[in-house]
Structure formats: structure tokens, C-alpha cells
Amino acid sequence: MPSAKDAMNGPGFEENLAITDVILGENRLAISTLSQLLQMLYTAFYYY
């Protein structure tokens, strides 16, 4: 669920989506997703 609909868990899901995009070779999508995440406050799912 995107951050716009779920402010608590949405960023974590979007972070997972970016990681999946990198694994699948969709680097532009991952960069786009990560740039949006860098503009908001949230606790990183994997790196806290």
C-alpha cells in the first residue's frame, strides 16, 4: 500500500518495492521510488 494511503507502513512497502526493482534490473524505477522516500520522514525498514 502506498504512503499516501498508509503513512505508517507505506514507506516500508515502497522501500521493499525499490529493492525488488533493483534486483529485477529496473534501476530507474528504484531511483524514482527512493528519491520520493528521501523526501519524507520514516524509519528505514532494513537499515535502522
Describe the 3D structure.
The protein is an all-alpha fold and 48 residues long. The chain has one domain (1-42). The chain has two helices and no strands. It has helices spanning 10-23, 27-37. The longest helix has 14 residues, at 10-23. The protein is globular. It starts with 9 loop residues before the first helix and ends in an 11-residue tail after the last helix. The mean pLDDT is 85.
Structure at a glance:
The protein is an all-alpha fold.
Give the N-terminus to C-terminus distance in angstroms: 21 Å
Computed over alpha carbons, the radius of gyration is: 10 Å
Give the overall shape, derived from the CA principal axes: globular
> Strand-and-helix sequence, N→C?
HH
Q: Which class do the helix and strand fractions yield?
A: mainly alpha
Q: Please report which band the strand proportion falls in: under 5%, 5-15%, 15-25%, 25-35%, 35-45% or over 45%.
A: under 5%
**Please, what is the average pLDDT?**
85
User: Which stretches are low in confidence, meaning pLDDT under 50 for 5 or more residues running?
Assistant: none
Integer count of domains: 1
Largest sheet: none
Number of alpha- plus pi-helical segments: 2
Helicity, as a percent range: 40-55%
Write down how many β-strands occur, each being a DSSP E stretch of 2 or more residues: 0
Task: List strands and helices in order, with pairings.
Elements lengths: L9 H14 L3 H11 L11
Helix pairs in contact: 1-2
Keywords:
48 residues, mainly alpha, 2 helices
